[in-house]
Design a protein that fits this description.
The protein has 14 helices and no strands. With 253 residues, it is mainly alpha-helical. It folds into 2 domains: 100 residues, Alpha-helical ferredoxin (Fumarate Reductase Iron-sulfur Protein, Chain B, domain 2, Orthogonal Bundle); 118 residues, no CATH class. Helix 4 crosses helix 7 and helix 13 runs antiparallel to helix 14.
Length: 253
């Protein structure tokens, strides 16, 4: 009498009822390797007692289907399917407050590990990353083109009604106090976003050389096109400026 042979090793992740195509094992391994190969990985993950202190003190865990302990356990046990599944939604619930890192007896940083997983999700163009980052297109445009997207005069009582009594901390004569700040260009949105041409070119070069723009293209092609057009125009202006300086120098001689 012959018996059928079978294996319980899961080769693909996916719900057979949903109709979604399964994720190949090679893809799962590639994603995990990208997370694990980051220089910060060994610093952020040292072991796990499964004590749950990180989850007990996590603000996000009280309101969302999110557990820092689960993230650590998935990575520590190299649960490729679980890691991939967590990257579809759970990792985006983390507030990056790093309370977990301050409390972990093993010195782990679940928040840091979540950051690595988020960066990997962006690198692989996961739909979860696109969904989360799409509403922040304006913020990313300001950040990439000016180097910042927040100035002090944006922090007002009207903008932060959920602060409650703490709003009194920003209800001081801020305009007067900020005159003592040695960086007047950071006082208002009008001046904080004024960036000279050379600085703009340098910022664009940094984003380009570090791979930020390549990742942005994966997540939001429209925003990538807008930023590319803006920076190409600024580079042309910079070339014209340098050419004018050379011409002026020749005339002076």
């Amino acid at each position: 009498m012959s018996h059928a042979t079978s294996t319980r090793v899961q080769q693909h992740i996916g719900d057979p009822v949903s109709g979604k195509p399964p994720v190949p094992q090679a893809k799962l391994e590639e994603i995990f390797k990208d997370i694990q190969s980051d220089l910060r990985y060994d610093h952020e993950l040292n072991g796990c007692l499964n004590c749950g202190i990180c989850t007990a003190t996590c603000p996000a865990a009280h309101y969302y289907d999110f557990s820092p302990r689960e993230i650590v356990q998935l990575l520590w046990t190299e649960n490729l399917e679980g890691v991939y599944d967590a990257m579809q939604e759970k990792i985006w619930a983390c507030a990056q407050c790093y309370t977990c890192a301050a409390r972990c007896p093993f010195g782990n940083s679940p928040g840091g590990l979540v950051m690595l997983m988020r960066e990997t999700a962006i690198k692989h163009g996961m739909q979860s990353a696109k969904n989360v980052l799409r509403p922040f297109s304006r913020v990313m445009l300001k950040l990439i083109s000016t180097g910042n997207q927040l100035s002090p005069d944006m922090i007002t009582r009207d903008h932060f009604p959920d602060w409650g009594p703490n709003v009194s901390k920003i209800d001081a004569p801020l305009k007067l106090l900020r005159q003592a700040i040695p960086m007047p260009t950071l006082n208002t949105t009008a001046t904080a976003w004024e960036v000279n041409l050379k600085t703009s070119i340098e910022l664009y070069t940094i984003w380009e050389e570090t791979g930020v723009l390549k990742q942005l293209e994966t997540i939001d092609e429209n925003l990538f096109d807008v930023i590319t057009d803006i920076m190409d125009e600024k580079r042309e202006d910079w070339k014209d400026f340098l050419a004018d300086q050379d011409d002026q120098g020749g005339k002076d001689e």
